[in-house]
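Figure 3 (text version): structure tokens given as input.
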């Protein structure tokens, strides 16, 4: 996943992730890419459009 500068660390994305892939910490967002099932719920729920799927992975 790619997080852009609009992210305000609200945690909405982490809350909807069915696999609990996203962790919000002081330094930003952490993703467990191995566990991500590519549902894109996090992308859809983000109020500021800060998330993008990195299609290279
Ligand atoms: S929902 Fe969007 S703004 Fe909120 S923590 Fe996730 S990426 Fe950042
Ligand atoms: S695409 Fe789905 S599984 Fe992957 S981080 Fe987002 S909500 Fe979680």
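Below: residues designed for each position.
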């Amino acid at each position: 996943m790619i997080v852009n500068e609009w992210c305000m660390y609200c945690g909405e994305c982490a809350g909807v992730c069915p696999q609990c892939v996203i962790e919000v910490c002081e330094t930003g967002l952490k993703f467990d890419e191995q566990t991500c099932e590519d549902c894109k719920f996090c992308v859809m729920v983000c109020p500021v459009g800060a998330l993008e799927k990195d299609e290279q992975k």
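The chain has one domain: 2-52.
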